[in-house]
Amino acid sequence: MKGSILCGIDLGPSGERAADVAAMLGRALDLGVCLVHAATGTPALDPRTDPAMRPAAEALAARLGARHDEAVRGLDAVRERLVRAGARVPSARVVEGRPWEVVVREAESMAAKLAVVGPHARPGTVRDRFLGSTADAVIRHAACPVVVATGATPLVGLEGRAIVVGIDGDPPSLAALRAALELAARAGAHVHAVCAANDSSIVVDALAAARALEREVKGSILWSAPVGPPAQVILDEADGCRAVLIALGTHGRKGIPRAVLGSVAEDVARRATVPVLICREPD
Length: 283
Known about the structure:
The chain is α/β, with parallel strands linked by helices.
């Protein structure tokens, strides 16, 4: 698994969690972690600025410049902390632009194996029901799988632990299963595939697809098909086997009909106590 992990951080608690998750994955997979923080650029002061407006323009430029310098210092501190914890951090950059666009662009330019972001949810508002806009947009637009650094439980390594994958036989869930099998093989983890469906034919088809993929990648899958609401079943199975990661697929549709990520992926990513790996439908 050549390449690096791109981690977008906001220098708040959500970003700290994302950095820790990225470092854990980097150590497990022997990948470097490249940090990026999106910030507003410092505008160049136009020499034609009206003298009467110049003091205000200079004050704004000074504030933005100070904010940029503060972000650089904060990012350097995160980098030093991760390095002390044993992670390889080849770069830590402050880049101008909207956060989700910066993460997607940087991940694509470096051919990242994974992108890691915080959930960025706003507590105490109606948006508690959804992931924050940055995480949602990164998932919908990134070419690589995205890990949402949900949860607050202490992070342990992947070795010897479970990765729970929710599958239904559709291409996105099989992409998530493939990613989980590759991670497990690299990090010494094991994969537990979960299919919750009222229609037994879906379970049969999902199992057949999972077994075919298992043979293709020469992996090993534990299988269960509990009865119940899919999101709750996946969360319960993850708790029951003390999983360190949940993997899911999403069609990543745009617009209102897609209900953000799709109800199962969004619900799991919002409520999970461990990080969630989300794969879009292959192009």
